[in-house]
Design a protein that fits this description.
Blueprint (H helix, E strand, L loop, with lengths): L6 H11 L7 E4 L9 H16 L3 E6 L9 H13 L9 E2 L4 H13 L3 E4 L3 H7 L17 H13 L8 E4 L14 E5 L13 E3 L1 H11 L4 E5 L6 H10 L8 E5 L3 E2 L6 H9 L14 H7 L3 H11 L7 E2 L1 H15 L2 E2 L1 E2 L2 E6 L5 E7 L10 E7 L1 E5 L20 E3 L4 E9 L5 E8 L17 E2 L1 E3 L4 E8 L19 E9 L1 H5 L5 E4 L3 E5 L10 E7 L3 H16 L4 H13 L4 H9 L1 H11 L5 H19 L6 H12 L5 H14 L3 H8 L7 H14 L1 H8 L5 H12 L6 H15 L1
Parallel strand pairs: 1-2, 2-3, 8-9, 10-11, 12-25, 14-20, 18-21, 23-27
Antiparallel strand pairs: 4-5, 5-6, 6-7, 13-24, 14-17, 15-16, 17-22, 18-19, 19-20, 23-24, 25-26, 26-27
Helix pairs in contact: 2-11, 7-8, 11-12, 15-16, 16-17, 16-18, 17-18, 17-19, 18-19, 18-20, 22-24, 22-25, 24-25
Bound molecules: adenosine-5'-triphosphate and magnesium ion.
Length: about 750
């Protein structure tokens, strides 16, 4: 049982304590019209998780009331997904279609009570009569039919006397109810269609709002947990059960926020479109957000359950960052996956002073991972390294092999480049290298300093493999349809090489390919003859970050010229800029000139220097010319000074400015980026975050003051970075104190 109970667990616990129910029964009720996705994983985790925590039971129920879209393939996919996540639905899978006879009788009950009638308006008329949110609806003239007439018509509907849409059964509630769902909702419709289970037995099918509460009741469900969009259906849920005066106990409906994730689409209808239009290879394409897709990609059930645990259960909708899911799989595999070597883009290296061959014993895990195991890695005078790991004209901060810089071959020796061999076009095709016999990993007596270790494989023993590298399926953060697909979401590398142990061992399915990421033997296409690996997720991209820092460090070390030094001193002493920023500006004429120019327009040295040393400097590296002037920078700095925008948001504004050429003012207005400083607006957001993470409040109280930053981060996230951090700081501090 979790330490901190969410609102659903609090309700369940209370209902058991007060004796409202003897045992908790939940259900997961998918419609078998598609493969379940990561959003369903959340619903599965909640329903099965709660049942498990309270020693109850969770039913797996196929909500199969729409014969046209449903089939057995999807039933199997749903079962597989639930099972794979580690949950158990017990003896049997339930189907709403098993209750068709019972539901039919309940409907007749309602007719006999005068609470339901057969309507004969057509679809358009029904819509028109329903009214709008602001105006009452109008009841159909057919609502006056006698009970006998209604029973007879309903019976004939069932017998197949009418065409689709000719009649419909409705509840008789209130055509002027403020809740539109209560305006004589539809209960049964005619649909002459083959059903994958009941075949041609029925030509009328119950609507969700009628079938769902009754199916819950029939199964003895106690807590009917669904997503927020069903909030308005709850009144009808209650009406059906109460009107029929069913023997207690009856179930109650509770809603939670559905999972929504960026760069992902989470509607079965749209996912089906991707499959049908063959944009993906199937429901289990490793780029799909389906459970089958994630499984095939190489995600573990543990990582997905962990993700569900992390996102928690809330009552307000929000969008989860897909990197949170990626974090969970990385975190899981970091502890489990053996590290091996793979070369994706091979460059031949011949070691001219090495003769013969040897096998090097290499551990599968680094010292900080509490796992053991090793393999033998063959070594010889002909190896492959990654093309990227050699640079003839190396950029600053490049730590790998260059004509003048040696590098370590991971687990093996240090090598240095003796000769670069090129083809006619000038492409590097081979490196002649020298190795240092004294430098063997673990017993290095060579005294040679290297800055990094790279992966390699011995040519003769290496095994050729296919590697499928996936990127996000959608290029936009909030994809609307297929137009937003990322055309580069799949890259197939046919000629990658792995060390032989990867293929020969029969234990491991997932590996960390050193310095590349985590990979999985494709469960369908992999064979020993044609090994295929899926890239699950990359390692944290440390290279780009490292490169930046080392560059900065180097530059700081190079002594300043006399003139530069003068500027530097003025910046630090008079203008109070920090050393790093002053250092960047004083070394670069273009930047310092711009800085002075902007400073003559707005007296805000620190804000201006920050923008120029960070944003402008970065931009100059990419584009050489700037499509903005000192005036725009002054305007941007002015907005930070006046607290119109936060400095965090200013980065976004700058980016947009560079792209669009618009002024910062226009951008802030168009995108509604104004900073939120009003405590009255911030307080409710802060309250919500504090209630959402009670465990972190406790940690704070117990003295972990670092957690404070977590809260700030959450608020910034909730406001898309627009909250004024200073005000947020003050409010949180006050609230956490009060909580103490
Ligand atoms: P879709 O919109 O993708 O077709 P759905 O809600 O129609 O999904 P169902 O098969 O009816 O799919 O869903 C089964 C259960 O899963 C329901 O209880 C539903 O509330 C829940 N569910 C569906 N999508 C999500 C989601 N994104 N987050 C959490 N729960 C979800
Ligand atoms: Mg649905």
């Amino acid at each position: 049982m979790k330490k901190n109970k969410d609102f659903l667990r609090i309700i369940v616990e209370n209902d058991l304590k007060t004796g409202k129910y003897k045992e908790v029964i939940t259900r997961f009720p998918p419609e078998p019209n598609g493969f379940p996705h990561i959003g369903h994983a959340k619903a599965i985790y909640i329903n099965f998780g709660i049942a498990k925590d309270f020693n109850g039971h969770c039913n797996l129920r196929m909500d199969d009331t729409d014969p046209v879209k449903e089939n057995t393939k999807y039933v199997e996919a749903l079962k597989n997904s639930v099972k794979w996540l580690g949950f158990d639905w017990g003896e049997k899978v339930y189907f709403t279609s098993d209750y068709f006879p019972k539901l039919y009788n309940y409907a007749k009950e309602l007719i006999k009570m005068g609470k339901a009638y057969v309507d004969s308006l057509n679809e358009d008329e029904i819509k028109e009569y329903r009214g709008t949110v602001t105006s009452a609806g109008k009841r159909s003239k057919y609502a006056n039919r006698s009970i006998e007439e209604n029973l007879e018509l309903f019976d004939r509907m069932r017998k197949g006397d009418f065409k689709d849409g000719e009649h419909i059964l409705r509840a008789k509630i209130d055509m002027s109810a403020s809740n539109m769902k209560m305006r004589d909702p539809l209960l049964y419709r005619i649909r002459h269609a083959y059903h994958f289970r009941t075949k041609d037995e029925w030509c009328i099918y119950p609507m969700y709002d009628f079938a769902h509460p009754l199916s819950d009741y029939i199964e003895g469900v106690t807590h009917s947990i669904c997503t927020l969009e069903f909030e308005n259906n709850r009144e009808l849920y209650d009406w059906i059960l109460d009107t029929l005066e069913l023997k207690p106990p009856r179930p109650y409906q509770y809603e939670f926020a559905r999972l929504d994730m960026n760069y992902t689409m989470m509607s079965k209808r749209k996912l089906l479109e991707l499959v049908e239009k063959k944009i993906v290879s199937g429901w289990d394409d490793p780029r799909m957000p389906t459970i089958a897709g994630l499984k095939r990609r190489g995600y573990t059930p543990e990582s997905i359950l962990n993700f569900c645990e992390q996102i928690g259960i809330a009552k307000a909708n929000s969008i989860v960052d897909v990197s949170q899911l990626e974090f969970c799989i990385r975190d899981d595999l970091n502890k489990k996956a053996p590290r091996v070597m793979c070369v994706l883009n091979p460059l031949k290296v011949t070691i001219i002073n090495y003769e013969g061959s040897e096998e090097i014993e290499a551990s599968y895990y680094p010292k900080n991972v509490a796992k053991e195991g090793s393999r033998k890695v063959p070594f010889s005078n002909t190896i492959y390294i990654e093309k990227d790991d050699f640079a003839e004209n190396s950029p600053k901060g490049y730590f790998r092999l260059t004509p003048t810089q040696p590098v370590r071959l991971k687990h093996a020796y240090i090598i240095s480049c003796e000769e670069v061999i090129k083809d006619k076009e000038g492409n590097i095709i081979e490196i002649k290298a020298k190795y240092y016999p004294e430098s063997k990993s673990g017993q290095d007596k060579s005294g040679i300093k290297v800055k990094s270790a790279i992966q390699w494989v011995s040519q003769k023993e290496a095994r050729k493999v296919e590697v499928r590298v996936y990127d996000r399926l959608f290029k936009s953060e909030n994809p609307k349809d297929i137009k937003d697909i990322n055309p580069n979401s799949l890259r197939i590398i046919k000629n990658a090489f792995v060390e032989p142990a990867v293929i020969e061992n029969k234990i491991y399915e997932r590996f960390q390919f050193e310095r590349e990421g985590y990979f999985y033997k494709d469960p369908i296409d992999y064979s020993e003859e044609n090994p295929v690996f899926n890239k699950i997720v990359g390692l944290k991209d440390s290279w780009t970050k490292k490169k930046k820092i080392s560059n900065d460090k180097k530059e700081i070390k190079k002594p300043l010229s006399k003139e530069e030094k003068k500027i530097f001193e003025r910046y630090t002493n008079n203008l109070k800029l920090n050393y790093k920023i002053a250092n960047i500006l004083s070394r670069d004429k273009q930047l310092s000139k711009l800085f002075e120019e902007v400073l003559s327009m707005v007296n805000a040295p620190i804000s201006v220097a920050n923008i120029i040393a960070n944003e402008v400097a970065k931009e100059l590296k990419i584009s050489k010319t700037l499509n903005f002037t000192a005036k725009e920078i002054a305007q941007l700095a002015q907005m930070i000074e006046s607290k119109t925008i936060s400095s965090k948001i200013s980065k976004q504004v700058f980016e947009k400015m560079v792209k669009s050429g618009k002024s910062p003012k226009e951008i802030v207005e168009e995108n509604n980026l104004t900073q939120i400083s009003d405590p009255a607006k911030l307080e409710p957001i802060i309250d919500e975050v504090i209630t959402k993470f009670p465990e972190n409040v406790i940690k704070y109280k117990e003295g972990n003051k670092k957690i404070f930053g977590f809260f700030i981060g959450q608020i910034l996230k909730a406001t898309n970075g627009k909250a004024n951090p200073k005000i947020v700081n003050e409010i949180i501090l006050k609230k956490l104190k009060n909580n103490e």
